[in-house]
Design brief:
The chain is α/β, with parallel strands linked by helices. Helix content is 39%, strand content 15%.
Length: 446
């Protein structure tokens, strides 16, 4: 803990508020350790139970995490805005940034022509009463999902995949409930689960998606929800195969106590068939974002599921944000209907495949195991994330440490390939190989 910050308070509420104030002000940085319960209780002249209750409240709000013998620490990305945030440091000037996890801006469809066309045809302004899911967008969504084998009678629209997942979890679970998540998995999702006061259960991942024994173990541990990335899993690039989908469907069939959420964030950018689990449980949802193929600023995802689940999401939206802008919905529909945009997305997917597969093969030729058969990321198991990230930074490459993506999985680094060119692959593979000597053991699950 930062030596200059003094936690104060005589009640659990006051103590937790003091810690939050320190995080907001930047005096308590991500990763900083809080005092041991008994030590702080003695210092504040309160009972250990009072401090324990304060720490429990902070954990439920996702501000701190208990790390066994390492004590209680501020979460790497606590859900509170800080004036001097200790986030992941930006890449050093002059280094190639391979840490962002974003698509290649050079391959995103231009929005200007479509916006100009919308401006000419959009008609009268839309009022509050008539603002909802546009019928033509719902119809197009049903057709696109049906082509991938996803039943889609009920449709909702959310402000991106994570917004949809948040609404699903908030509408169906309560703080303290257990959620089965992929490990390693999407850092933003792990942060969201913590911020909602839910308990994550890590499910190991291999190239074919969440493992059947891992899901079985999570169910036995009381998981109330299971979140599966259909393809282009972040950070490992896994995609649910036909065989894995069959095994999971057999395991999950009829589980009335489980909310099943599938996240197809990559959508058209993933050049592998979709093998959905949709409908295998009575309570389920399938979320498809448009951000990766069409642009991160398009904060829209389409969501389908069973009638009650979709109704809960729509109801939550109605009493909160209300709806996703119909202007944005019309823009997405225009992009979907444009053959030139579809061709550009197809070529982008092919380009990512060449870069990702090329780097993975270059690393394999140098004795380095890397994982990623879909999407824009490679996951490289390492012995020490800090050493590898620092060594690569000094060699001119910025990669993301895997610590934000992990619960119990082994250490690794994530390399985003979207900004790489073919000429970069060999020099980067050489740099990674040098950073990893001696080579870490293979495998990316616990």
């Amino acid at each position: 803990m930062a030596a200059h910050y003094q936690i104060v308070g005589s009640s659990s509420a006051a103590i937790s508020a003091s810690v939050e104030s320190g995080i907001r002000g930047g005096q308590l940085a991500p990763g900083d350790a809080l005092p041991a319960v008994r030590a702080l209780a003695t210092e504040l002249a309160v009972s250990p139970a009072t401090v324990a209750k304060a720490y429990q409240e902070l954990r439920h709000r996702g501000l701190v995490v208990t790390a066994g013998r390492h004590g209680t620490r501020v979460r790497p990305r606590p859900p509170v805005a800080a004036r001097r945030a200790g986030r992941m440091p930006p890449p050093l000037p002059g280094t190639r940034n391979l840490s962002a996890g974003q698509p290649d801006s050079r391959l995103l469809p231009p929005l200007g022509p479509h916006l100009a066309a919308l401006a000419a045809e959009i008609g009268s302004p839309t009022g509050y009463v008539s603002s909802a899911v546009l019928p033509e967008l719902a119809e197009a969504t049903r057709a696109r999902l049906a082509a991938d084998g996803v039943p889609a009678e009920e449709i909702a629209v959310t402000g991106g995949a994570l917004d949809g997942i948040e609404r699903l979890l908030a509408a169906n679970l309560r703080p303290g409930d257990a959620v089965a998540v992929e490990d390693p998995g999407w850092a933003n999702l792990l942060d969201l689960v913590a911020a909602l006061g839910l308990r994550p259960i890590g499910v190991p991942v291999d190239d074919d998606g969440p493992t059947e024994p891992g899901v079985r173990s999570a169910l036995a541990a009381g998981a109330r929800a299971l979140i599966v990335t259909s393809r282009a899993q972040n950070p490992t690039g896994a995609a649910v195969s036909a065989e894995r989908a069959e095994a999971l469907r057999a395991l999950l069939a009829g589980r009335s106590d489980l909310l099943l959420i599938e996240d197809d964030h990559a959508a058209e950018l993933a050049h592998v068939p979709l093998h959905p689990l949709a409908g295998v449980t009575p309570t389920w949802a399938f979320v498809r974002s448009v951000s990766k193929p069409y642009g991160p600023d398009l904060r829209l995802a389409v969501l389908t599921g069973d009638e009650a689940t979709v109704a809960r999401v729509a109801g939550r939206a109605r009493v909160g944000a209300g709806w996703v802008s119909t202007v944005l919905q019309r823009l997405v529909l225009a992009l979907w209907r444009d053959p030139a945009t579809a061709d550009l997305v197809r070529r982008a997917a092919e380009s990512y495949d060449r870069r990702r597969d090329g780097l993975r093969e270059a690393l394999a030729a140098r004795g380095v195991a890397a994982y990623g058969r879909t999407g824009i990321n490679l996951w490289v198991p390492v012995a020490d994330e800090t050493v590898v990230v620092t060594t690569l930074r000094d060699a001119g490459w910025s990669v993301a440490p895997g610590t934000l993506n992990r619960i119990a999985a082994g250490p690794g680094v994530r390399i985003t390939v979207s900004s790489l060119d073919e000429a970069d692959l060999a020099p980067l593979a050489d740099a990674v190989a040098r950073a990893l000597r001696p080579v870490a053991s293979a495998g990316f699950t616990a």
